[in-house]
Prior knowledge:
Blueprint: H1 2-18, E1 31-33, H2 40-45, E2 51-52, E3 59-62, E4 68-69, E5 72-73, H3 81-85, H4 89-96, H5 101-124, H6 134-148, H7 151-175
Antiparallel strand pairs: 1-3, 2-3, 4-5
Helix pairs in contact: 5-6, 5-7, 6-7
Amino acid sequence: MLRLKIAAKGLELEKLCQSCGLCCNGVIFADVRLQPGDDAPRLKAAGLPLVSSTKSGSLGCPQPCAAFDGCRCQVYSGRPRHCREFECLLFKRVQTGSMKFSAALDIITTARQRADEVRCLLRELGDHDEALPLAKRFRRTSRRLVKQLDESSAETYGKLTLAVHDLNLIVGQAFYPGP
């Protein structure tokens, strides 16, 4: 009976991750730094672009991840160590039983909706670069608008700023509290 409960919990946790993907789609992370033991040539051969950090010189995979397809990883069995080891706070709460699966799904739905709202507002303001993480797109758009903010874009920019704030709140509270 205990084995069945453990197996059911494992399937539930797998379903939780597959309904989310925020750790892979550029919402939570801007990149994934490779760790000792990660096979950079194999990851590159699998189609993942690898970039060198100007600060540390270490290699990483920029987010959104090129191997992320919907809510599935195309290189799951050979994904970087950071990806294998990362468990968001929401995952841990469901795993320990301190949060119900349905409540976690509700939080994921809200976070995804907030991220979609940010993407939509960024597009309205002329940023269509879906290959960059949301935080970077927001900063870039903010820098650009400081120079050319007009009455029509000011209202949309205000909505964007609030939407980013709301997204950051839910990410910080439910998924990843930062450093």
